[in-house]
Amino acid sequence: MTDYTAVTTVPYDITDTFRFIRDPRNLPDYFPGIREAELIEPELVRTRAVVDADQDGEDENVVSDAWFHVDEASHAISWGSPGESDYHGSLGLEEADGKTRIRLAVSTVHDIPEVQQGLEDALAAIADRLETLSTKDASG
Question: For each of the chain's 140 residues, which pLDDT tens digit applies?
Fold first, then answer.
C-alpha cells in the first residue's frame, strides 16, 4: 500500500469549510480529473472522471462507485473503492486559531507519483473555491 498526504491551512471557519467539503457534488470543484459526482444511495457516490486509470499514458472516461462516509462530529470525510485498486482516502479538518487545517490522505496499492501533486492541487483548489464562496457571501 502506498500512502500520500498533503496538508494546508485556510483562513475560513471550520463549519463553513466542512459544509463545502462534505457535499459529494463539490468533488469536481477540487479533485483533478473528476467531472461529475452524485450521491446515488446513502454513503454511495458515483463519479465520472477523466484519468489514466490503466496507467498507459492516455486518459480515459471512468465511471465508478465508491463508498463515501461523512463524520459530522470530527469534521471528516472518507471514501474508497474496494476491489482491484483498493483505493481509499480521507479529508479531515481541524480548527486552528479561527482558521481551518485540512489534511488530505490517499492510499492505493499502486505507486503513482502523480498522486502527490494531485493532492496538492486539490488543496489549492479547495482554498480557491472557498475564497470564491466567501467573496460571494460577503457581497450577497
Answer: 899 999 999 999 999 999 999 999 999 999 888 999 999 999 999 999 998 777 788 888 989 899 999 999 999 999 998 666 678 999 999 998 889 999 999 998 878 788 899 999 999 999 999 998 887 766 65
Query: What's the predicted TM-score (pTM) here?
Result: 0.87
The whole-angstrom separation of Cα 96 and Cα 100 is 6
* 78 close to 71: Cβ distance less than 8 angstroms: yes
What are the sequence ranges of the domains in the chain? Answer: 2-139
Question: How far apart are alpha carbons 140 and 17 in whole angstroms?
Answer: 18
* The three cell numbers locating residue 63: 465511471
Q: Enter the CATH code of domain 2-139.
A: 3.30.530.20
